[in-house]
Amino acid sequence: MWESDRVNGRRLSAETLGAVERASGKLASAAVAAMDREFPWFGRMPADQRASVSLVAQSGVAGFTAWLKDPREALRLTTDTFRGAPRELSRWVSLRQTVEMVRVSLQVFEEMVPDLAADDDERAVLSEAVLRYGREVAFASAMSYASAAEARGAWDARLEALVVDGIVRGDAEESLLSRAAALGWDPAAEATVLVGNPPSDDPPTVVYEVRSRAARAGRAVLLGVQGSRLVVVLAGPTDSAADMEMLKRMANAFGDGAVVAGPTVASLAEGHRSAADALSGLRAVVAWPEAPRPVRSADLLPERALAGDPEAEWQLIDRVARPLEEAGGALLETVEAYLGAGGVLETCARQLFVHPNTVRYRLRKAAELTGRNAADPRDGLVLRVALAVGRLSRARGLW
């Protein structure tokens, strides 16, 4: 007796369909046993995970039987049903392992299913059906892993945004480091925060621009778009000339406008210090139109102090004003006189009643102490502002 159901235009008898349906448990068990023989990692799986694989195999066999009965409608339903199973598998089985399990299961099906046919014609039909169904199962598995990867990517993006936001806000170290570790960040890596304008309103474009440049530099990176600003946390040192060139390449991932790099800190746990200085510099950089790109936040100390940043004021006092004062009155007096004379060496020497070479010597000593050369216009501005901030702080009793 022949059924009206067809597989690829050819009919299967009710006897063959019944034999396949009755053998579903045997087929699933044989597939799981074959996995156990071929894959050492399968035998090391916990019992509950092995049981889940067995259920998936049984679901696949049941779907195959349903598809044989109604290939026009049941294939879609079977594929949708089977597609849900690998979502669970993808939590603890890799895509490569899933492909291997599907391959072994299909080999078992190809060996056993044709023997259930009533005659040679139906055996050929069943052999072709196994191949077609296996193809659909493989596509369903690939789609489920693609969906899982997209979901993981979306989750990683949200987690990364939380980490960057935590760095900017100065969140507790433990929560910040645990989240960053989940993203693969090395907790011992140095960190530098860069801020500027995003290159696009399209988030994927922003991510691609930043990550592609970081990958070429061999650096780990975290990024987040916060309104109209892009915050990038770059791993590794940034002190050498080669590192500065790398920072310039990273700055090209930003949009138009200034890019400010905060100080490099020892670890991500101190990233909030780099972020605070970088953001302070971004607010103040408008006062220095000729600033390089990127510009270090430490090079914006005068503008930051004028904008009311107490941290910049403290750094100017600590790095410039205090060393000059502690070095002795002659050194401080010489710097102030030189700046007051507009950088004219002979005028400064006459005011101090010393030889010009003495002025040169003292200025050289001042540069060694502060890292600022009074003869350089930019460094001269830093020295002027630092000394002014120092006097103001002393008058307020803060120093």
How do the strands of the widest beta sheet line up side by side?
Answer: 4-5-3-6-7
Task: Bin the strand percentage.
Answer: 5-15%
Number of continuous helical runs: 17
Number of domains: 3
Q: In sequence order, what are the helices and strands, one letter per element?
A: EEHHHHHHHHEHEEHEHEHHHHHH
Radius of gyration over all CA atoms, rounded = 35 Å
Could you please say which CATH topology of the largest domain applies here? Globin-like
In terms of structural class, how would the helical and strand content be classed? alpha+beta
The biggest sheet amounts to: 5 strands, mixed
In whole angstroms, the N-to-C terminal distance is 104 Å
Average residue pLDDT? 84
Key traits:
Globin-like, alpha+beta, rod-shaped, Arc Repressor Mutant, subunit A, disordered N terminus, Alpha-Beta Plaits, two-stranded antiparallel ribbon, 399 residues, 3 domains, five-stranded mixed β-sheet, single chain
What does this structure look like?
This protein has helices spanning 14-22, 24-38, 40-43, 47-69, 74-89, 95-112, 120-169, 173-182, 203-217, 241-251, 271-284, 301-306, 310-326, 329-340, 345-352, 356-370, 377-395, and strands at residues 2-7, 10-13, 191-196, 221-226, 229-235, 260-261, 295-296. With 399 residues, the protein is of the alpha+beta class. The protein has 3 domains: 2-150, Orthogonal Bundle (Globin-like); 175-306, Alpha-Beta Plaits (2-Layer Sandwich), CATH 3.30.70; 310-395, PucR C-terminal helix-turn-helix domain (Arc Repressor Mutant, subunit A). A 5-stranded mixed β-sheet has the order 4-5-3-6-7, with helices on both faces. Strand 4 and strand 5 (229-235) form a beta hairpin. Helix 2 (24-38) packs across helix 6 (95-112), helix 4 packs antiparallel against helix 5 (74-89) and helix 7 (120-169) packs across helix 11 (271-284). The radius of gyration is 35 Å and the shape is rod-shaped. The N and C termini lie far apart (104 Å).
